[in-house]
Amino acid sequence: MMLSDVMEDYLKAIYQLQRGDDERVKTSAIAEELDVTSPTVTSMLEKLEDRSLIDREKYRGVTLTEEGETVALEVVRHHRLLEAYLTEHLDYDWSEVHEEADRLEHHISENFEARVAAALDEPEVDPHGSPIPSPDLEPPNTAVGNPISECGEGDTVIVKEVADHDPEILSYLADHGLEPGVELEVLEVAPFGMVTASARGSDTQVSLPEDVARHIRVALPAEAE
Amino acid sequence: MMLSDVMEDYLKAIYQLQRGDDERVKTSAIAEELDVTSPTVTSMLEKLEDRSLIDREKYRGVTLTEEGETVALEVVRHHRLLEAYLTEHLDYDWSEVHEEADRLEHHISENFEARVAAALDEPEVDPHGSPIPSPDLEPPNTAVGNPISECGEGDTVIVKEVADHDPEILSYLADHGLEPGVELEVLEVAPFGMVTASARGSDTQVSLPEDVARHIRVALPAEAE
DNA sequence: AGGCAAATTTAGCCCTATCTAACCCTAAAT
DNA sequence: ATTTAGGGTTAGATAGGGCTAAATTTGCCT
């Protein structure tokens, strides 16, 4: 199947938004994610439906078909492998890899994918701790850890994933010692979703508004693998 | 200036074809190079002229403006850096890098370009021996060596550049020991452009039709740097 | 000089992806 | 059950890049 870059972007967006809460994905959510207007999304959804890449119920949102999910996973695999490669071999900082990977992910061959994966020794997570889909593109149910907002106050946890994309926010977090692998003490979880924590070894603390905290997943040291 | 991939491809094509014989580049030559029809080329040439990237005389072909040449050199620099990187660091064979670089060249950032160049220690030639434009994108007059067809019979020369793009032909040449850096004895130069030669250390010989020989440049060992 | 073949441009159409404006459906609230 | 706010869809336009068929220009050959 010959898909345009743009179609791949839509499928990837639907995949990511579905991950959010595993429900039907709404037109407006896709529009916001891709920074286009909703009529544009509607017309693209029609095309994706024609190609059996999504299931659509008018006015009620869409879900990926198996085939659509495979395409999305391929794109996500490319993206995360590239992020890993750029940080490991080209001296990029984890905070700046997203944009570059976003442009390259549509333009690499299977051959390139394979060689990058080999150079990295078949990695399983990217620099943000997000799982890299396996080469067979089987849907992974392997969300690592839990949202930091589900912690109890006083918990000590290991940061598993920081899935934000904004370089400024990522730099800020790194400056405060908040990176995958780091041990963290959760100081406060406010009812409106704000989380305050302190990284092991740092005596400063960070407060994270809900929309930042949402992207951070952690695990108890016990469950650390 | 915001240019589409396609416009970059046209400028690159014009640049390469101009290199051929430094004359005005004709519509049909571009059409063949890019595998589109000539009306398509004409309409794109109008757009490139509107943007002052080419000088055009209707019915008589085009040349690049200084600005157009800079864009072309940027694309060529990306292309050749990528070819070098793929062979040096990702285990590609020189015969297969062209296609991959052709797709990626439009999608890498200046940052990526700089880091790849640094990883390669600012290389000056790509795996085919073609010069990589410098970061300042000054027009290089630095064609290395001379066309193999200008050799005398019996000359012993060093292969400087093999500028073909066809993986099959490149593999064939490599199988016969004909790669940049190799010492070669020119056995025969036929009037219709066919060149027969034998690589140092190999006792087999290769015969190259004019359209293959045209892409091979050599230098006398004396002038070898 | 005249004529002709080949190359170029013009004309007119298509497809993709996007937009704005206008209309319509859903769901929540009364 | 009705209303209504707000998101979703339809309609119609635009811009980019491509094609075929029909003119037009060039330049070569006699």
UniProtKB/TrEMBL annotation, chains A, B:
UniProt cross-references to Gene3D superfamilies, sorted A to Z: 2.30.30.90, Iron dependent repressor, metal binding and dimerisation domain, Winged helix-like DNA-binding domain superfamily/Winged helix DNA-binding domain
User: Region Disordered: what ranges?
Assistant: 122-146
In terms of superkingdom, the source organism counts as Archaea
Q: Where would you find this protein in the cell?
A: Cytoplasm
Listed GO CC annotations: cytoplasm
Which key words are in the record?
DNA-binding, Iron, Transcription, Transcription regulation
Output one GO MF annotation: DNA binding
Q: Which family does it belong to?
A: Belongs to the DtxR/MntR family.
**UniProt subunit comment:** Homodimer.
Could you tell me what this protein is called? Answer: Metal-dependent transcriptional regulator
Which species is this record about? Natronosalvus hydrolyticus
